[in-house]
Amino acid sequence: MEGGSQLYMNDGKDPGFPNFTSSDDELAIAARTDRRAFDLLYRRYLDRVYRYTFSKTADPVIAEELTSSIFLDALEGLNRYKPRGTLAAWLFTIARRRCADYHRSSPPLPLIAEALPAFEGQPEDEKDRKDFFLRLEKILARLSEEELNMLRLRYAADLSHAEIGHIIGKSEAATKMALSRLIRRLRGVWEIDDER
Amino acid sequence: MKDDKAMLESVLTDYFHAASPSDSFARSLETRLAAAHTDANRTFPEPRIRSMWLRLAVIGIVVALSLALGLIGPKRVWAAIQQLWQRYIPGIGLVEEADALALAKPVSHTEAGVTFEVQEFVATAEETRMTIAIRGLPPETNIDVDSVAVNWPDGRGLRLSVATFGRLWPSCTSTDCQELEEAPPIYELGYVLGPLPADVRTARVTWKVAGLVPGSEWSDRWVLEIPLSPLAEAEDSAFDQLIYSSDSSLFVDNMTLTVTNVVQASDRTVLDVTWSMPGMDVVAQAAELSLVDDQGQRYALLPGRMMDLDENGPEFITRATESSDSHRYLLHERWQFEPVSPDARTLTLEIKSMYPRTDAEGSFEFDLPSNPRSGDLVPVNQTFEVAGGILRIASVRFVSGTVVIDSRDAPPTSLNDQLVIEADLDVLEQPPDGRYDSVILEAGWSGPYWKYADPPYSESSGIMVTRLVYDPDRIWSNHVRIHLGLVEVYQEGPWTLSWEVPGR
């Protein structure tokens, strides 16, 4: 995913266009008139958008509502999207705005460990996993909203540094540095926690 | 160490990947999107040239265009062509006239001293754009952009794609601005919505006024009827416009400023400009802008009329060179000036000064006193090279200041006599092309929404340096690191950029 999607033109040799190898921009252009292309974009991004909205809400029903709004907004806005290899950044800009509208009066970090669906494994593994996540949440609760949002874009939405930079208004290098500093800080706290 | 980092990243990935959409939701949303996609295409079918007459007409236009290009030159022909089918709508921009419906004049409703006005409403096949002004509400009123909706009599409505929110203080034309901020501002809301169905000729704009207009009930709504007519049939008195493209460019250090479109209307002159720069951390702010014509007449920038046109963030482009890839950011802005004289033959954009910003990428560390109090001083003595000059931070001090607590659902509140950290900053060497103007300090514990020191800047060595709130709840250890963030450099010009007005 690093560096975002590659733009290449479909030269007509591929009779099956659009298909799973088509770039985001090719699909975005085709999706203005071709439903199959939008379906492919939807499948490509559904999990990532849902994970992002769930991480902001910790509520599966609200996450589904927000995910629906985001894709409907994207469908309506496709004509305005300028294809320059930044579809993921564009989509998550919509997602961020939708979540911000929804979350005007909510705390910055909904704790999601308790709201997660059941783990498919042994009950003792499930308990370990939950304890692990609760420990992580105690550390995340100390972060600012901006820092949390960078983590969500990176680890829930699986965006590249360049794509996150587009959304938060920083260069790729500055985003990389900011995330690296953040992870270093988190690691330090995690280690201190380990020693206790 | 690398393994630890990978382990933490793996934990974060597991944590944020632990939820996934259910199959039933995925299927139902797919069906809903498929229906929405079909509806969207049914409303606005792709235009096709079907009849032989239309094809002949197109060929005729191409032949006429070729002749015109040969006889009177491409620039004037292009200006004339643009005027044939484009209009500039203040607050909205250039609109293709042929397929547009528009509100002929603003409509408004006034009650309890509050005025809600739909100033512009333009519907094209691709989107609907609307600008709204609300007057009479106190400063710092929190207006939810979602409190405004567009629908039509049968109950259907438009979905919001993009909304902008701004406050404009009336008559704020000089250095008295700060005093005028006590006066009620004009709240400006801009909307980009989905396309209006082709059969709708009257839209309704609804505003939920609960909690905003004095005496309103929770269910109160103000509704404005928006009659729409083809833009091409609008009376021309309000649209006496000269519209043309320009490719005039100005080069300042590693930035380029290009004027792309010019609209000369009876009430204003509008320039669409593009900044090209190597990184988003190097943002230029044009200050003290004016337009000058060939007669020496000067036209000022209209107050509050510098607009950011990048709804989806700046454009990012990559050009491959032999040695490496070159990255540039393109920022698109719209600047509006007083109307220029119809007799102007050439126009010159004059920029007296700029404030380019640099990401300093420097940091310093120190140990906090065990129980910090106002007056405590910690020596730092660090130097930083930024934008070709050298800055020194001699020490940091704890002082008593006002802290603002900000949240998204309530007006900001202030707390006096709070502990803040202030840096003593000297300039050892000014940058070669200007002088340092401001330095933003960032600390790991400071977040954007919650607390910040007010006033946010303190004067030190002629430079504005941000203060940091000392917030023990957010500080993890006594050893802290502070980063130099953006540094602004004042550069004095003037820089000028001239172009000919076509057809003059």
The low-confidence runs of chain B, each spanning 5 or more residues with pLDDT under 50, are 42-54, 170-182
List unreliable stretches of 5+ residues of chain A. 1-15
Biggest sheet features of chain B: 13 strands, mixed
CATH class of the largest domain in chain B: Mainly Beta
Tell me the strand percentage band of chain A.
under 5%
Through-space gap between termini of chain B: 69 Å
**Percent range for helical residues of chain A?**
55-70%
Which outline of chain B best applies?
Answer: globular
Greatest interface (CB-CB under 8 A), with counts per chain: A-B, 80 and 65 residues
The portion of residues forming beta strands of chain B comes to over 45%
Rg on CA atoms of chain B, Å: 27 Å
The CATH topology of the largest domain in chain B comes to Immunoglobulin-like
Instruction: Please report the total strand number of chain B as a whole number.
Output: 29
Number of strands of chain A: 0
Number of domains of chain B: 4
Task: For the record, give the distance between the C-alpha atoms at the N and C termini of chain A, rounded to a whole number.
Answer: 37 Å
Helix/strand order of chain A, N-terminal first: HHHHHHHH
CATH-defined architecture of the largest domain in chain B: Sandwich
Structure description:
The complex is a heterodimer of chains A (196) and B (504). Chain A contains 8 helices and no strands. Chain A has one domain. The radius of gyration of chain A is 19 Å and the shape is globular. The N terminus of chain A is likely disordered. By secondary structure, chain A is mainly alpha-helical. In chain A, helix 1 packs across helix 2, helix 3 crosses helix 4 and helix 4 crosses helix 7. The longest helix of chain A is centred in the C-terminal third of the chain and has 24 residues. With 504 residues, chain B is mainly beta. Chain B has 4 domains: 33 residues; 145 residues, Immunoglobulin-like; 115 residues, Immunoglobulin-like (Sandwich), CATH 2.60.40; 134 residues. In chain B, 14% of the residues lie in helices and 50% in strands. In chain B, the strands form 4 sheets. In chain B, strands 12, 13, 14, 15, 16, 17, 18, 19, 20, 24, 26, 27 and 29 form a 13-stranded mixed β-sheet that branches. In chain B, strands 3, 4, 5, 6, 7, 8, 9, 10 and 11 form a 9-stranded antiparallel β-sheet that branches. In chain B, strand 17 and strand 18 form a beta hairpin. Chain B is globular, with a radius of gyration of 27 Å. The chains are: A mainly alpha (196), B mainly beta (504). At the A-B interface, helix 2, helix 3, helix 4, helix 5 and helix 6 of A face helix 1, helix 2, strand 8 and strand 17 of B.
